[in-house]
Amino acid sequence: MDFGYTAADEAFRGEARAWLAEHVDGAQDRRTWERTLGKAGWVGLGWGEGGFGNRTASLIQQVVWAEEYARSGAPVRSGHIGEKLLAPTLLAHGSDEQKARFLPAIAVGEELWCQGYSEPGAGSDLAGVRTKAELGADGTYRVTGQKIWTSLAHEADWCFVLARTEAESRRHHGLSFLLVPMDQPGRIEVRPIRQMTGTSDFNEVFFDGAHARVEHVVGGEGAGWKVAMSLLGFERGVSTLAQQIGFAQELGRVVEEAVRSGAVDDPVVRERLVRQWAELRVMRWNALRTLGRAGDAGAPSAAKLLWGGWHQRLGELAMQVRGAVAGVGPRDWAPSSPYELDALQHLFLFSRADTIYGGSDQVQRTIIAERVLGLPREPKGVV
């Protein structure tokens, strides 16, 4: 299958690999790393000729960069929500003033973002938003409500918030997409959520009259549902291929452990290892096949179903090849933490969430059923 990979793309790969080899430094904190990436022009490769301080790159070169980044062992990005979610949304729906204000700061790694979508009690039902934003006489919105599972809220400078701006509106009507500064003591509170992995990557965020400027409503008041759905379309794309590089590295560790423990001698284990490898190759080819394809409503949902289940099965396989010792922690537990996990234990526990976050499997199947297969819509409860 010819994806148009050229000598120029190979040269781009060499440049990316060399730069990462020279600059990846485990001692850098994540915010400093974002600025390092931005200064070198590696942020916003897919934004096009916008004049926002980023270099341009073809879709294939964006894939190349994502793959080389995943292979390099570079830090997990703290700026990806702004770069991969908000920036494309602003390019599609934002005003010229909004683009000029926010895109350059993302491009140089100076402003970090978080996503204010999910709420308690609504689960994966995004239309069940209860957070309210009331417009005051001074032209400023007062945002009141709670968001949950908010990744990186403890580091973010800004949050894009889906809020109800029309009183008594229901479901997807009356929603707006607001850009809210996080530095508002007394009006915004962030509470980390401790996960069973022992880490706190997610947060609860409480808005108590937090201010948002009227000129920071993306797409206009009442257009929040349209903008929010557009953003979700950007959530899976080039990043899927980079994610698969990480999956391949995890699979390699599971294979190594199977050999070390002797579990590889079990024909059932060998069959599962081969199946995981084959399914990962299929996911890669499918991602390449659909890369850059617009208008396929079911492709992102199908991809999410595939990799979510695959990753969970890999975590389960990791525990199987480890055997009974998989349930035992290290002997030298640090007094400052209740427990520590090795890489395979972390893989197993973290992957339990793969079929929930980013839209649960049930939601993805409903999207495919209704939007692709044309089946009758699922009855909705009254909110």
Give the topology.
Layout (H helix, E strand, L loop, with lengths): L6 H17 L6 H10 L19 H14 L7 H14 L2 H12 L5 E4 L15 E4 L4 E8 L10 E7 L10 E7 L6 E6 L8 E12 L3 E2 L5 H11 L3 H24 L5 H24 L8 H24 L20 H9 L9 H12 L11
Parallel strand pairs: 1-4
Antiparallel strand pairs: 2-3, 3-7, 4-5, 5-8, 6-7
Report what the structure shows.
The structure is a single chain. With 383 residues, the chain is of the alpha+beta class. It is built from eleven helices and eight strands. It is globular. The chain starts with 6 loop residues before the first helix and ends in an 11-residue tail after the last helix. The mean pLDDT is 85.
How much is the average pLDDT?
85
Shape: globular
**Strands in their spatial order, largest beta sheet:** 1-4-5-8
Number of strands: 8
Poorly predicted residue ranges: none
Separate helix tally: 11
Kindly state the percentage of residues in helix. 40-55%
- Computed structural class: alpha+beta
Rg measurement, Å = 22 Å
- Beta-strand percentage range: 5-15%
Order of helices and strands: HHHHHEEEEEEEEHHHHHH
Please describe the biggest sheet, giving its number of strands, its sense, and whether it closes into a barrel.
Answer: 4 strands, mixed
Ends: how far apart?
48 Å
Give short descriptive properties of this protein.
383 residues; 13% strand; alpha+beta; four-stranded antiparallel sheet
Question: TL;DR of this structure?
Answer:
The chain is α+β, with helices and mostly antiparallel strands and 383 residues long.
